[in-house]
Structure formats: structure tokens, C-alpha cells
Amino acid sequence: MKESTQNQTDNKAFTEECHTVLTAVSDALYVIGGKWKLMIIIAMARGNKRFTEIQKQVTGISARVLSSELKDLELNGFIIKKVENGYPVTIEYELLPYSQTLEELVGAMTRWGIQHREKVKAEMGSEKSNKQ
Amino acid sequence: MKESTQNQTDNKAFTEECHTVLTAVSDALYVIGGKWKLMIIIAMARGNKRFTEIQKQVTGISARVLSSELKDLELNGFIIKKVENGYPVTIEYELLPYSQTLEELVGAMTRWGIQHREKVKAEMGSEKSNKQ
DNA sequence: CGGCATCCAAATAGATACTG
DNA sequence: CAGTATCTATTTGGATGCCG
């Protein structure tokens, strides 16, 4: 994993690999980017299926935005909207198997978020009592 | 990984774990969310250090936005701006070690982006020649 | 409850020109 | 080259009210 000798050869491969990675990350961000999509999927993976349940878990999201995000998620094959006819009609959203492909990504992001919060906390303490 | 018996006990733990995960992901998105930050870090990790180099790699970013994003990244400890006095002054941005904590996340996102693109491509093919 | 329509405010981003 | 300033256009989002 360490190299420093022949850089000319590396540079070209690096540029190509860079483009590949940038394209892939760009693709991913296009589909699951934004503040809410991953958070909605996380909330749903913990058993929240109803519109208002999800809205309660995902702090700060408005009904309009949640509605729009759910549509996007359905279009992209992560969830499905189920309408049960009865008195009254109940509507539930369910995760589809494809949403499980995000597990690794969500796990990585969760771990990073936790360690980042701790890093920030540690910096706060070590900045010579620089309170605001 | 399969459970269905005692759901009451699970639900409470689930709700707490849900909140933990949502908070962590929210923290992460706050710092590295948006279209550009990860892409800039990826480009820099492949050796791009100059402003225009980065702008060339990260397709579509404007100078104004790149400038603003670089400032954010510096504030959050991912990069450092180095000014070398000479004729003319050269300015380089370098990754700091903290940016390496993102490797797992970037890797997960890259893999997901690649597989997602392939899934979409496969769907295109299987949708009875439904060209647009 | 689960939304959608409307209106309006704020944030974001593109284009262009300009500077040291 | 490495930005900044300005202006404008577009996107996004909150608030509210309404509907089945």
C-alpha cells in the first residue's frame, strides 16, 4: 500500500481511477444524497412504517418534504407504498430488499459520525477553555 | 439476524438505537453532506492539489462554490491551504490525516454507486425496449 | 391520518466581470 | 492562477389551509 518510485505510470492510472470513483460517488449522491433519504431509510429499518411515525423519528422534516422524499425512494426501488383498504384506509411504507444494499454505507456513515462527534468534543475541551 | 418472538423488548432498544444512528448520520451529513465535499476530497487524494486541478477533476463545480467548499473543508480539519511565496505565489491544498478517516465511507459509497449504476442499466435492458 | 396546493421566504448556484 | 464581488435565476423549504 505504499508507493513512491515510478510516479509517471501511477499518475495515469490514478487519473482514471479518480474518474471512476468520482463518477460512482456522484451516482450514489444523486440517488441517496440530501439531508433526508438515508435518514428515512434508517427510520424505516427500525420498524417505522407510517407517514407520521417516520416524520416523528426523522426530526425536523416537514410533511411536504417527507412526502416528496418517499416518492423519490419509491421511484428508485427502495420502498413501496402499501394501501390497505379498511375503515379507515391505512397506508404503510415498506422497505424493499434493495434498501439493504445500503447497509454497509449506512454503517460506515454511522461510525464516522460517531467518531467525528467525539473528535469535535475532544477539540472543544483542549482549546484552552475557549468557551463561546 | 432474525427475530420475531419478543417484540416489546426489541422495540424500545430499537427506538434508542434508531436515535443514535440517526444522530450520527445527521452529524456526518452536516459535515460531509452536499454534492461536492466528498468529491473534492477524492480528487485531492488522487494528487490534485491546485485550485484549477481540483476544479477540472470535479466536473461541474464553479470557482465560487469550490472556493467556499475548500474553506469549509479547512475549517473542519480535512485540508490545509499552503501558500508558497515565489514568482508567482503558488497555492496548494493538502489533505490532512483526518481526511483518511473517510476512507471506509468513501469506499462504501463508491461500491454502492457502481453496483447501483449496474442495477439501473440492467433494468433499462429488461424493460421491454422502453426507450425514451 | 396522509397527504397536495398555494404562497412566500431563504438558501443555493450560475454567469460575468474584475483583482493581485 | 486563484480567487472575490455582484447580480440574477433556480431550487428548496416552511407555513398554512384544504381534502378524502
UniProtKB/TrEMBL annotation, chains A, B:
Q: What keywords does the record list, in alphabetical order?
A: DNA-binding, Transcription, Transcription regulation
Coiled-coil stretches, from where to where? none
| Annotated HTH hxlR-type domain residues | 18-121
Classification via Gene3D superfamilies: Winged helix-like DNA-binding domain superfamily/Winged helix DNA-binding domain
What is the protein name stated in its UniProt record? Transcriptional regulator, HxlR family
Species the sequence originates in: Epilithonimonas zeae
The organism's lineage? Bacteria, Pseudomonadati, Bacteroidota, Flavobacteriia, Flavobacteriales
Single GO MF descriptor: DNA binding
Q: Does the keyword DNA-binding apply?
A: yes
Q: Name one Pfam family in it.
A: HxlR
